[in-house]
Write a structure and sequence with these properties.
With about 625 residues, the chain is α+β, with helices and mostly antiparallel strands. The protein is about 25% helix and about 20% strand.
């Protein structure tokens, strides 16, 4: 649910092209492991890098990653071996990790290529791609929703930091030095003042669908000089801070162009050209189209391999499917139906590209107006919890995954998805039959024990356009599951995204409109904290009226826990508490999918969960 799918809009907020400005990224180069390798007659410089968030910077200069499996730890595999395997095996290498039996669950070390001449040998041997790279080309990339614009990270992870940052002795101040001479595309200087301005404005605007909740651990930001920024942390030695700084929660915007306390209109954003990444935004029409042009003044790690990118929005997935099949668009990304993906995988005119899955689909409860909620006609916290727990016992995730989504999603019984530290299938044991299947008898017993009369009238809301057209089938199935045995009488309704996203939240002026409703989530950064803080911490983005001091304090504590095992224990404790509270119910975990023309290369879907324009080329 990040921007639309996450927090409505990652950054800065809806209507602002936040992905076009350079977030602060902190990396550290280890000078003792810099190596020079020769592959046939081609020379590349290969360095080890400690990447704070994950592997985002390893596409240096837009080159495709050598270690195609993002989970490879270079401590376990010498760089030269990866390079050789890449040349021998080609691009299709999640093979490397599997072949060598590497640990694929915890990883932070990756390699960065700094190219000499035109890239590595595999590319140069491909004459058409080489020519396309030299001449440049225009790409047409198509996305299902206007909000997805903000998921696309045209400039994410550009390195504006000169160092890895340093913590003060007491762990309350994190100081980062910026590179000297940084410029926005409009020629304005990018200084520490812009960094402070950018973080301050997000917290000041505090949009209910914005990313301000991710900045909760930052008490304040100060500047020492034009290249020195100090972040004052509310959590000692915050292990999540570096990832937050390099996420879409922390874009660096031009303080001469953006408003300090309100959303900036699209026309101003386009006109002022206040970006520091590989592209300039040249046009933008809400819910219709936008266009980028290469930023020739960009000096970062990922200069664009293409000259122009045109983006068009589709409201109907069947039209999007037809457009990519007929070559009217080069890349289709997000929200295609499982049937569409299945059909397209059999079409030799297109390629289906998949990436690791951190997406979640779940149910959210409004603690104010759900049955027996705080503002209902019969408020009763125990009965409200019994309703939530009965719902959890009736959900059949396997049916949703296989029959609705044709196994493009997998059942999710944990608040933290599979693959991240702290993942724990607590929901499987606690609800249903204890093995993942629904149990109507257990649900009935839960309701009877709390004195809840059945059937319970339950208003359930979903969105038909933002989370894909299969949402209608998904929620029809959920309605049938909940009504099994006569325990619930479900009033299923749908609302278009623009209104849905406004009506769902609890604010100072509103208790929200939907007692139980659909949400989805795309992570801001690949860390378990990003599946907890935005949902359960005070001031969270879900804004469903939920608050639990014990959970809140544990979330703060885990962020400052530097011992991995101790932190994992805290993560599991938080999930045990949430398994009882059930402010949300995780349903499914899904992979990333894009469909491209057969002549398109460089589309990489990885653990950063961002689509990068700069590496995409077309023959």
């Amino acid at each position: 649910m990040r921007h639309p799918a996450k927090h409505g809009n990652p950054s800065p907020f809806l209507g602002e092209a936040g992905h076009l400005v350079a977030p602060l990224v902190v990396v550290q180069v280890n000078p003792f492991v810099v190596g020079l390798h020769v592959i046939v007659v081609h020379v590349v410089v290969h360095r080890h890098v400690w990447q704070v968030g994950h592997v985002e910077v390893s596409e240096a200069f837009g080159e495709e990653r050598i270690e195609r499996d993002l989970r490879i730890r270079l401590d376990d595999l010498p760089p030269c071996i990866i390079e050789i395997l890449h040349v021998v095996l080609g691009d299709g290498t999640p093979l490397v990790a599997d072949l060598l039996g590497l640990d694929t669950r915890r990883f932070h070390r990756v390699s960065v290529l700094l190219e000499v001449r035109f890239g590595h040998l595999v590319e140069v041997e491909d004459g058409s791609e080489f020519l396309g790279r030299v001449l440049g080309n225009a790409l047409r990339i198509v996305f299902r929703h206007a909000g997805d614009l903000l998921q696309l990270d045209a400039t994410a992870f550009d390195r504006i930091a000169a160092d890895d940052g340093t913590w003060s002795a007491d762990g309350t101040e994190f100081t980062v030095k910026l590179k000297k001479g940084l410029k926005f595309a409009n020629g304005h200087d990018l200084t520490a003042s812009d960094v402070k301005f950018s973080f301050d404005r997000i917290k000041k605007i505090n949009d209910e669908n914005g990313p301000s909740s991710l900045l909760a651990n930052i008490e304040s930001v100060e500047t020492k000089d034009d290249t020195t920024v100090v972040f004052h942390s509310a959590v000692k030695d915050d292990v999540t801070l570096k990832q937050v700084l390099s996420s879409p929660a922390g874009p660096i915007v031009d303080e001469e162009s953006f408003s300090a306390d309100k959303l900036t209109d699209a026309n101003t954003i386009v006109k002022d050209n206040a970006f520091a990444g590989p592209y300039k935004l040249t046009s933008y029409k809400v819910n219709e189209a936008l266009a980028y042009a290469k930023n020739d003044s960009y000096k970062g790690l990922t200069p664009a391999k293409n000259d122009v990118v045109q983006v068009k929005y589709f409201a109907d997935s069947s039209n999007l499917k037809m457009a990519v099949q007929q070559g009217q668009v080069d890349v289709a990304y997000r929200s295609m139906t499982p049937t569409d993906v299945e059909d397209l995988s059999k079409d030799n005119k297109v390629k289906v590209v998949k990436g690791p899955g951190g997406e979640e689909r779940f149910l959210a409860f409004n603690f104010k107006i759900m049955p027996y909620g705080e503002k209902s006609s019969e408020p009763n916290a125990d009965k409200a919890k019994a309703v939530r727990q009965a719902v959890a016992s009736l959900i059949d995730r396997n049916e949703l995954a296989t029959k609705v989504y044709k196994s493009t999603y997998t059942p999710l019984y944990s608040f933290i998805p599979d693959g991240l530290s702290g993942h724990d299938d607590t929901l499987k044991a606690a609800y249903g039959d204890g093995s993942g299947k629904p149990d109507a008898a257990k649900a009935k017993k839960t309701l009877e024990a709390a004195g809840v009369k059945t059937p319970v009238d339950l208003k359930l809301q979903y969105n038909p356009d933002h989370y894909g057209q299969s949402s209608a089938d998904e929620y029809a199935a959920i309605k049938a599951q909940l009504e099994e045995g006569g325990l619930f009488k479900v009033d299923l309704q749908s609302t278009e995204w623009t209104q849905f996203n406004k009506d769902r939240v609890v604010t100072e002026d509103s208790d929200g409109s939907y007692p139980v409703y659909q949400l989805g989530w795309f992570p801001d950064y690949s860390d378990p904290d990003n599946y907890l803080s935005p949902f359960f911490r005070d001031g969270n983005f879900v804004n469903n009226g939920y608050s639990n001091k014990e959970v809140n304090d544990l979330i703060v504590k885990q962020a400052g826990e530097t011992d991995a095992k101790a932190r994992e224990d805290l993560l599991k404790e938080i999930q045990k508490l949430e398994t009882d509270d059930l402010s949300t119910i995780p349903l499914l975990q899904g992979a990333q999918v894009a469909v491209t023309g057969s002549n398109v290369k460089g589309v990489v879907l990885d653990a950063s969960f961002r689509f990068r324009y700069s590496s995409v080329t077309k023959a």
